[in-house]
């Protein structure tokens, strides 16, 4: 199989498992009960009836799981009301499944956002698969570091309908920031007066102290910066930022005002390169004891303050 085929099958696998688990609209059946299916197909399949459209999804099974993480045998099919059976591609799958959900709710609009995100996710998975072809042995090796394990998750969450959509990041930026492509880069930093900062910590040390101590040990940061700003008595709080986040922030009018007032200083990129684990918003700098979590211009349904409290 080529990268496109692998990506589209992975997309269908996660989307259908998500749909089956969330709706319960599926049943285990024997292939022999569907005589219009031809070819070499396993004995069992999942059947999902899209009643309002008189369509049945016919999903041959390679492995049936008690937890719902089924493994499908491809190709997957759908049967129309006229009993005609067709192979199901991932775009048609999203179209008819989302239409069924809309019909069930009495809606007449479309779920174009869902379609967009599924297509983006599939295209990204294809790019990851093609880019990591030479790493195929390492990707399947039982011996790996934490970062290597995170960078090996090319297909994403197995129950997510759009696991790798990553809206808001360009293809060029992906090569720098995505764990699947083994991206690495420097974090950016701001120096802020305590009066404009909200911080909390589950440790005895404050969040500010933790960051200063971590940066004080980074010898790739100038000794002048470490001596001036990384000591406990420094009046500034050091705030790390993702480069994409920093790029957006320094263009905001309220941030510009704070910089003009002197209560906020943009220090730019500093220190060792960071390595992104599975989530684009989370980063690890080698030989540091903390993992930094950001929220930037990728879409998120959860307010950042809430994310911080959860962490």
Summarize the model shown.
The protein has 311 residues and is of the alpha+beta class. It has helices spanning 3-23, 90-104, 112-131, 136-139, 146-151, 171-177, 207-216, 223-229, 243-249, 253-261, 304-310; strands spanning 27-30, 44-50, 55-63, 71-72, 77-79, 85-87, 185-192, 237-241, 264-274, 282-284, 291-293.
Mean pLDDT: 89
**Total domains, how many?**
2
Strand content bin:
15-25%
Q: Count of DSSP E strands?
A: 11
The rounded Rg comes to 24 Å
Structural class: alpha+beta
Low-confidence residue ranges: none
Taken from the alpha-carbon principal axes, the silhouette is elongated
Annotation field: number of helices: 11
Major beta-sheet overview: 6 strands, antiparallel
Helix content: 25-40%
Report how far apart the termini are.
40 Å
N to C succession of SSEs: HEEEEEEHHHHHEHHEHHEEEH
Structure description:
- Helix 1 runs parallel beside helix 2 (90-104) and helix 1 (3-23) crosses helix 3 (112-131).
- This protein has two domains: 1-165; 185-310, no CATH class.
- The mean pLDDT is 89.
- Strands 1, 2, 3, 4, 5 and 6 form a six-stranded antiparallel sheet that branches.
- It has helices spanning 3-23, 90-104, 112-131, 136-139, 146-151, 171-177, 207-216, 223-229, 243-249, 253-261, 304-310, and strands at residues 27-30, 44-50, 55-63, 71-72, 77-79, 85-87, 185-192, 237-241, 264-274, 282-284, 291-293.
- The chain is an alpha+beta fold.
- It is elongated.
- It is built from eleven helices and eleven strands.
- It is 36% helix and 19% strand.
């Amino acid at each position: 199989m080529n990268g496109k085929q692998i990506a589209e099958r992975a997309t269908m696998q996660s989307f259908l498992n998500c749909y089956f688990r969330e709706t319960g609209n599926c049943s285990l059946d024997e292939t022999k009960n569907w005589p219009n299916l031809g070819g070499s197909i396993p004995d069992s399949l999942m059947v999902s009836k899209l009643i309002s459209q008189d369509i049945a999804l016919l999903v041959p099974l390679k492995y049936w799981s008690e937890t719902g993480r089924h493994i499908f045998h491809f190709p997957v099919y759908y049967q129309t009301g006229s009993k005609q059976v067709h192979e199901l591609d991932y775009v048609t799958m999203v179209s008819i499944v989302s239409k069924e959900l809309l019909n069930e709710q009495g809606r007449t609009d479309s779920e174009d956002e869902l379609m967009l995100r599924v297509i983006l996710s599939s295209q990204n998975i294809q790019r990851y698969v093609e880019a990591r072809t030479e790493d195929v042995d390492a990707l399947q090796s039982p011996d790996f570091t934490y970062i290597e394990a995170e960078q090996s998750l090319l297909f994403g969450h197995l129950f997510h309908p759009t696991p790798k959509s990553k809206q808001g990041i360009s293809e060029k930026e992906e090569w720098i920031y995505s764990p699947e492509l083994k991206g690495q880069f420097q974090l950016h930093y701001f120096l802020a007066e305590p009066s404009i900062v909200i911080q909390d910590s589950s440790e005895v040390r404050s969040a500010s102290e933790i960051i200063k101590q971590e940066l004080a040990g980074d010898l790739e940061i100038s000794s002048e910066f470490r001596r001036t700003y990384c000591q406990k008595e420094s009046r500034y709080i050091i705030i790390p930022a993702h480069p994409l986040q920093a790029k957006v922030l320094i263009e905001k009018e309220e941030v510009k005002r704070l910089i003009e007032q002197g209560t906020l200083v943009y220090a730019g990129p500093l220190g060792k390169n960071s390595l992104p684990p599975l989530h684009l918003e989370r980063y690890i700098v080698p030989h540091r004891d903390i993992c930094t979590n950001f929220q930037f211009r990728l879409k998120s349904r959860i307010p950042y303050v809430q994310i911080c409290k959860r962490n």
